[in-house]
Amino acid sequence: MSKTTLAVAISAALIAAPLTALAQASNTSPNGVVTLSPEGMFPPTGTWNLATRAGDFVYIAGMRGIVPETNTLAEGNEARVRQAFTNMQTIAASEGATLQDAVRIVVYVTDMYRYRPIVNKIQEEMWAGRPYPPRTIIEVDRLNQDDIVEVEGTFYAPKN
Description:
Oligomer: single chain
CATH class of the largest domain: Alpha Beta
């Protein structure tokens, strides 16, 4: 390796190290993916985050029926489903998106027969008859804390 090549490599490393450290400290990846922690939401309980922003899109992790103020599950099936959608809506709103800006949602339920009608009812109320986003609903064997529903979403939220 020539002295010039070595000098260029060292210079690049010296420039990249502070930028990488800055990106990690600010919850932003080197490519600009921002980890979101909206005020008023519950903290993640493990190796995950509530949401990220990549360009004009917001990706929201699976939200369950957790009441942020108490960090406990909402009481009752309908309340729990509504809370899961409300949590997703709150995070989307923190980035300037509305439910109508949902590009796609995925709903996980532990009993399709019992909970899909509730999901449909809550979604109809929250979207207020406006066009619904593409949705996939999947029955799963079990969710964390034996919850009944989890909903995740992708939202279009152009940066200003």
